[in-house]
Amino acid sequence: MITLLADGGATEIEGPVVPHGTEVLGWTRKPHGWCRDEMCVPSFRAAAAESAEGVDLAAFAGLLGREVVSDGDEGVIAIGEPAETAPGEAPPFEELEKLRGTKVALVFWASWCGCRYDLPAWEALHRELAGHGFSVLSVSLDRDPGDAREWLDGVTHPAVIDADGRIAELYNVINVPTVVWVDEEGRIARPQDTMTATDTFRSMNGLSSERATAALRRWVVDGEAGTTLRELRAPTGDERRARLHARIAAWLLRSGRTAAAGRHLAEAAALAPHDLAVRRGLMPLQGVDPFGEEYFKVREELEAAGIAIYRPLPDWQEDAR
After folding, report:
1. Which InterPro entries does this UniProt record tie to the protein (predicted)?
2. pTM of this prediction?
3. b or e along 262-299 (b: 16 or more beta carbons within 10 Å of the residue's beta carbon)?
Protein backbone atom coordinates (compact mmCIF):
# COMPACT_ATOMS: atom_id res chain seq x y z
CA MET A 1 0.00 0.00 0.00
CA ILE A 2 1.09 3.56 -0.67
CA THR A 3 -0.32 6.91 0.43
CA LEU A 4 -1.65 9.26 -2.24
CA LEU A 5 -1.54 12.96 -1.33
CA ALA A 6 -3.88 14.76 -3.72
CA ASP A 7 -6.90 17.06 -3.84
CA GLY A 8 -6.59 18.06 -0.20
CA GLY A 9 -6.49 14.57 1.29
CA ALA A 10 -4.44 11.47 1.99
CA THR A 11 -5.72 8.15 0.58
CA GLU A 12 -4.35 4.64 0.86
CA ILE A 13 -4.10 2.92 -2.51
CA GLU A 14 -2.66 -0.43 -3.57
CA GLY A 15 0.06 0.98 -5.77
CA PRO A 16 1.03 3.48 -8.47
CA VAL A 17 -0.95 1.47 -11.03
CA VAL A 18 -4.69 1.75 -10.40
CA PRO A 19 -6.83 -1.26 -11.37
CA HIS A 20 -9.19 -0.90 -14.33
CA GLY A 21 -12.72 0.11 -13.36
CA THR A 22 -11.49 2.43 -10.60
CA GLU A 23 -12.06 6.18 -10.52
CA VAL A 24 -8.76 8.03 -10.94
CA LEU A 25 -8.32 11.52 -9.43
CA GLY A 26 -12.04 12.11 -9.79
CA TRP A 27 -12.13 10.95 -13.44
CA THR A 28 -14.21 8.00 -14.68
CA ARG A 29 -13.50 5.75 -17.68
CA LYS A 30 -16.18 5.85 -20.37
CA PRO A 31 -16.17 4.26 -23.85
CA HIS A 32 -14.82 7.43 -25.48
CA GLY A 33 -12.29 8.35 -22.78
CA TRP A 34 -11.84 9.52 -19.20
CA CYS A 35 -14.40 12.12 -18.10
CA ARG A 36 -15.05 14.46 -15.19
CA ASP A 37 -18.23 16.49 -15.41
CA GLU A 38 -18.23 17.94 -18.95
CA MET A 39 -14.50 17.46 -19.54
CA CYS A 40 -13.02 14.37 -21.16
CA VAL A 41 -9.58 13.00 -22.05
CA PRO A 42 -10.16 11.08 -25.30
CA SER A 43 -9.23 7.41 -25.48
CA PHE A 44 -6.37 7.92 -27.94
CA ARG A 45 -4.65 10.25 -25.45
CA ALA A 46 -5.50 8.20 -22.37
CA ALA A 47 -3.88 5.15 -23.96
CA ALA A 48 -0.47 6.52 -22.94
CA ALA A 49 -1.37 5.92 -19.28
CA GLU A 50 -3.20 2.61 -19.70
CA SER A 51 -1.91 -0.94 -19.81
CA ALA A 52 -3.20 -4.45 -19.23
CA GLU A 53 -2.45 -4.02 -15.50
CA GLY A 54 -4.37 -0.79 -15.08
CA VAL A 55 -3.85 2.98 -15.18
CA ASP A 56 -0.48 4.45 -14.32
CA LEU A 57 -1.33 7.19 -11.81
CA ALA A 58 1.67 9.39 -12.55
CA ALA A 59 1.23 9.15 -16.31
CA PHE A 60 -2.48 9.93 -16.02
CA ALA A 61 -1.74 12.96 -13.83
CA GLY A 62 0.67 14.13 -16.52
CA LEU A 63 -2.11 14.00 -19.11
CA LEU A 64 -4.06 16.36 -16.85
CA GLY A 65 -1.17 18.80 -16.56
CA ARG A 66 -0.50 17.89 -12.92
CA GLU A 67 2.99 17.52 -11.45
CA VAL A 68 3.92 14.35 -9.58
CA VAL A 69 6.54 13.71 -6.90
CA SER A 70 6.91 10.27 -5.34
CA ASP A 71 9.04 8.55 -2.73
CA GLY A 72 8.98 4.79 -3.26
CA ASP A 73 11.06 4.08 -0.18
CA GLU A 74 8.58 5.89 2.06
CA GLY A 75 5.49 4.71 0.16
CA VAL A 76 4.02 8.09 -0.75
CA ILE A 77 3.12 9.94 -3.93
CA ALA A 78 1.97 13.56 -4.18
CA ILE A 79 0.02 14.96 -7.12
CA GLY A 80 -0.35 18.68 -7.63
CA GLU A 81 -3.14 20.84 -8.90
CA PRO A 82 -3.66 21.50 -12.64
CA ALA A 83 -1.16 23.99 -14.03
CA GLU A 84 -3.75 26.69 -14.62
CA THR A 85 -7.42 27.52 -14.65
CA ALA A 86 -9.27 29.47 -17.34
CA PRO A 87 -7.66 32.90 -17.89
CA GLY A 88 -8.72 35.33 -15.19
CA GLU A 89 -10.69 32.76 -13.21
CA ALA A 90 -10.08 32.45 -9.48
CA PRO A 91 -9.23 28.81 -8.72
CA PRO A 92 -12.24 27.41 -6.87
CA PHE A 93 -12.27 25.93 -3.40
CA GLU A 94 -15.22 25.28 -1.11
CA GLU A 95 -15.07 28.35 1.12
CA LEU A 96 -14.63 30.72 -1.82
CA GLU A 97 -17.46 29.15 -3.81
CA LYS A 98 -19.84 29.88 -0.93
CA LEU A 99 -19.12 33.59 -1.42
CA ARG A 100 -20.00 33.76 -5.13
CA GLY A 101 -21.87 37.02 -5.77
CA THR A 102 -19.67 38.84 -3.24
CA LYS A 103 -16.40 40.70 -3.68
CA VAL A 104 -13.73 38.87 -1.71
CA ALA A 105 -10.30 39.74 -0.36
CA LEU A 106 -8.41 36.47 0.00
CA VAL A 107 -6.00 37.22 2.83
CA PHE A 108 -3.15 34.69 3.12
CA TRP A 109 -1.43 34.78 6.53
CA ALA A 110 0.18 32.49 9.10
CA SER A 111 0.86 32.37 12.83
CA TRP A 112 4.59 32.35 11.98
CA CYS A 113 4.27 35.74 10.27
CA GLY A 114 3.90 39.13 11.92
CA CYS A 115 0.88 39.56 9.65
CA ARG A 116 -1.10 37.62 12.28
CA TYR A 117 -1.39 40.95 14.08
CA ASP A 118 -3.28 42.34 11.07
CA LEU A 119 -6.23 39.97 11.50
CA PRO A 120 -8.24 42.34 13.75
CA ALA A 121 -7.82 45.09 11.13
CA TRP A 122 -8.99 42.72 8.38
CA GLU A 123 -11.94 41.78 10.57
CA ALA A 124 -12.77 45.48 10.96
CA LEU A 125 -12.67 45.97 7.17
CA HIS A 126 -14.88 42.92 6.73
CA ARG A 127 -17.51 44.40 9.05
CA GLU A 128 -17.18 47.93 7.66
CA LEU A 129 -17.67 46.91 4.02
CA ALA A 130 -20.06 43.98 4.39
CA GLY A 131 -22.99 46.20 3.43
CA HIS A 132 -21.32 46.84 0.06
CA GLY A 133 -21.29 43.16 -0.86
CA PHE A 134 -17.79 42.43 0.40
CA SER A 135 -16.17 39.72 2.50
CA VAL A 136 -12.72 38.94 3.81
CA LEU A 137 -11.78 35.27 3.50
CA SER A 138 -8.62 34.60 5.48
CA VAL A 139 -6.45 31.60 4.58
CA SER A 140 -3.90 30.43 7.14
CA LEU A 141 -0.85 28.64 5.77
CA ASP A 142 -0.16 26.95 9.12
CA ARG A 143 0.65 23.26 8.73
CA ASP A 144 -0.56 22.67 12.30
CA PRO A 145 -4.16 23.95 12.53
CA GLY A 146 -3.78 24.48 16.28
CA ASP A 147 -1.19 27.20 15.64
CA ALA A 148 -3.73 29.23 13.68
CA ARG A 149 -6.86 28.76 15.76
CA GLU A 150 -5.89 30.97 18.67
CA TRP A 151 -5.49 33.91 16.29
CA LEU A 152 -8.92 33.31 14.77
CA ASP A 153 -10.77 33.50 18.07
CA GLY A 154 -13.67 35.94 17.77
CA VAL A 155 -13.48 36.62 14.02
CA THR A 156 -16.74 36.70 12.09
CA HIS A 157 -15.31 36.59 8.56
CA PRO A 158 -14.95 33.21 6.82
CA ALA A 159 -11.61 31.57 7.59
CA VAL A 160 -9.86 28.41 6.43
CA ILE A 161 -6.63 26.70 7.50
CA ASP A 162 -4.67 25.43 4.50
CA ALA A 163 -2.73 22.73 6.39
CA ASP A 164 -1.77 20.76 3.28
CA GLY A 165 -0.81 23.82 1.22
CA ARG A 166 -3.35 23.14 -1.52
CA ILE A 167 -4.87 26.64 -1.64
CA ALA A 168 -1.43 28.25 -1.54
CA GLU A 169 -0.52 26.05 -4.49
CA LEU A 170 -3.68 27.04 -6.39
CA TYR A 171 -2.90 30.74 -5.88
CA ASN A 172 0.90 30.53 -6.21
CA VAL A 173 1.49 32.09 -2.79
CA ILE A 174 5.20 32.17 -1.94
CA ASN A 175 5.10 34.31 1.19
CA VAL A 176 2.70 36.02 3.55
CA PRO A 177 1.03 38.42 3.77
CA THR A 178 -0.37 37.96 0.28
CA VAL A 179 -3.78 39.22 -0.78
CA VAL A 180 -5.84 38.41 -3.89
CA TRP A 181 -9.03 40.26 -4.86
CA VAL A 182 -11.82 38.16 -6.39
CA ASP A 183 -14.91 39.76 -7.92
CA GLU A 184 -18.56 38.75 -7.67
CA GLU A 185 -18.28 36.42 -10.65
CA GLY A 186 -15.31 34.51 -9.27
CA ARG A 187 -12.73 36.27 -11.43
CA ILE A 188 -9.41 37.82 -10.44
CA ALA A 189 -9.73 41.57 -9.88
CA ARG A 190 -6.17 41.96 -8.55
CA PRO A 191 -3.61 39.14 -8.50
CA GLN A 192 -1.18 38.18 -5.74
CA ASP A 193 0.13 41.30 -3.97
CA THR A 194 1.90 41.96 -0.72
CA MET A 195 -0.71 43.93 1.23
CA THR A 196 -0.95 44.93 4.88
CA ALA A 197 -3.90 46.19 6.92
CA THR A 198 -1.74 47.88 9.60
CA ASP A 199 1.66 49.56 9.68
CA THR A 200 2.97 47.33 12.48
CA PHE A 201 5.92 46.14 10.41
CA ARG A 202 6.29 49.02 7.97
CA SER A 203 9.89 49.53 9.08
CA MET A 204 10.65 46.04 7.73
CA ASN A 205 8.45 45.87 4.62
CA GLY A 206 8.15 49.53 3.63
CA LEU A 207 4.44 49.12 2.85
CA SER A 208 1.67 51.63 3.57
CA SER A 209 -1.51 50.07 4.93
CA GLU A 210 -3.34 53.39 4.46
CA ARG A 211 -2.76 53.35 0.71
CA ALA A 212 -3.63 49.67 0.48
CA THR A 213 -6.89 49.84 2.39
CA ALA A 214 -7.93 53.01 0.55
CA ALA A 215 -7.46 51.14 -2.74
CA LEU A 216 -9.50 48.23 -1.38
CA ARG A 217 -12.35 50.55 -0.39
CA ARG A 218 -12.35 52.11 -3.88
CA TRP A 219 -12.66 48.67 -5.43
CA VAL A 220 -15.45 47.55 -3.10
CA VAL A 221 -17.48 50.77 -3.26
CA ASP A 222 -16.70 52.08 -6.76
CA GLY A 223 -15.59 48.91 -8.57
CA GLU A 224 -12.17 50.31 -9.46
CA ALA A 225 -9.51 47.62 -8.98
CA GLY A 226 -6.72 49.97 -10.08
CA THR A 227 -4.95 47.47 -12.33
CA THR A 228 -5.28 46.00 -15.78
CA LEU A 229 -3.59 42.79 -14.62
CA ARG A 230 -6.44 40.36 -13.99
CA GLU A 231 -4.69 36.98 -14.00
CA LEU A 232 -2.75 35.20 -11.29
CA ARG A 233 1.00 35.05 -11.72
CA ALA A 234 1.55 31.45 -12.77
CA PRO A 235 4.03 29.18 -10.96
CA THR A 236 7.03 27.68 -12.70
CA GLY A 237 7.45 23.93 -12.96
CA ASP A 238 10.14 24.07 -10.27
CA GLU A 239 7.81 25.96 -7.93
CA ARG A 240 5.08 23.40 -8.47
CA ARG A 241 7.44 20.49 -7.77
CA ALA A 242 8.85 22.23 -4.70
CA ARG A 243 5.37 22.42 -3.18
CA LEU A 244 4.87 18.70 -3.71
CA HIS A 245 8.16 17.93 -2.01
CA ALA A 246 6.95 20.15 0.84
CA ARG A 247 3.65 18.27 1.00
CA ILE A 248 5.48 14.97 1.29
CA ALA A 249 7.85 16.46 3.87
CA ALA A 250 4.92 17.62 6.01
CA TRP A 251 3.33 14.17 5.82
CA LEU A 252 6.62 12.52 6.80
CA LEU A 253 7.20 14.93 9.68
CA ARG A 254 3.76 14.19 11.08
CA SER A 255 4.72 10.50 10.92
CA GLY A 256 7.96 11.12 12.79
CA ARG A 257 10.18 10.34 9.78
CA THR A 258 12.42 13.38 10.09
CA ALA A 259 15.39 12.13 8.05
CA ALA A 260 13.24 11.34 5.02
CA ALA A 261 11.40 14.64 5.45
CA GLY A 262 14.72 16.47 5.47
CA ARG A 263 15.57 15.14 2.02
CA HIS A 264 12.34 16.50 0.59
CA LEU A 265 12.77 19.83 2.37
CA ALA A 266 16.23 20.18 0.87
CA GLU A 267 14.85 19.41 -2.58
CA ALA A 268 12.08 21.98 -2.16
CA ALA A 269 14.60 24.64 -1.12
CA ALA A 270 16.81 23.82 -4.11
CA LEU A 271 13.90 24.05 -6.55
CA ALA A 272 12.32 27.23 -5.12
CA PRO A 273 14.66 28.95 -2.64
CA HIS A 274 12.43 32.04 -2.60
CA ASP A 275 9.29 30.17 -1.45
CA LEU A 276 9.07 31.18 2.20
CA ALA A 277 5.58 29.69 2.46
CA VAL A 278 7.39 26.36 2.16
CA ARG A 279 10.75 27.02 3.79
CA ARG A 280 9.52 29.01 6.77
CA GLY A 281 6.08 27.45 6.93
CA LEU A 282 7.45 23.98 7.65
CA MET A 283 9.83 25.11 10.42
CA PRO A 284 7.27 24.58 13.23
CA LEU A 285 6.76 20.95 12.19
CA GLN A 286 10.52 20.49 12.46
CA GLY A 287 10.62 21.99 15.95
CA VAL A 288 12.44 25.05 14.57
CA ASP A 289 11.51 28.57 15.67
CA PRO A 290 10.10 30.36 12.57
CA PHE A 291 11.08 33.69 14.16
CA GLY A 292 14.56 32.52 15.11
CA GLU A 293 18.05 32.07 13.76
CA GLU A 294 17.14 29.65 10.96
CA TYR A 295 14.61 32.05 9.48
CA PHE A 296 17.06 34.94 9.47
CA LYS A 297 19.63 32.72 7.77
CA VAL A 298 17.12 32.17 4.97
CA ARG A 299 16.43 35.92 4.77
CA GLU A 300 20.13 36.67 4.51
CA GLU A 301 20.53 34.03 1.81
CA LEU A 302 17.72 35.54 -0.27
CA GLU A 303 18.88 39.11 0.23
CA ALA A 304 22.43 38.15 -0.81
CA ALA A 305 20.95 36.62 -3.98
CA GLY A 306 18.97 39.78 -4.70
CA ILE A 307 15.62 38.09 -4.08
CA ALA A 308 13.06 40.39 -2.43
CA ILE A 309 11.25 39.08 0.63
CA TYR A 310 8.08 41.06 -0.10
CA ARG A 311 7.08 41.05 -3.74
CA PRO A 312 5.68 42.05 -6.09
CA LEU A 313 5.42 45.65 -4.89
CA PRO A 314 1.80 46.78 -5.43
CA ASP A 315 1.16 49.78 -7.66
CA TRP A 316 -0.21 51.84 -4.80
CA GLN A 317 2.95 51.23 -2.76
CA GLU A 318 5.59 52.32 -5.27
CA ASP A 319 6.34 55.64 -3.61
CA ALA A 320 5.56 54.52 -0.05
CA ARG A 321 8.99 53.20 0.91
Report:
1. AhpC/TSA, Thioredoxin-like_sf, Thioredoxin_domain, Thioredoxin_ResA/DsbE_sf
2. 0.90
3. ebbbebbbebbbbbbbbbbbbbbbbeeebeeeebeebe
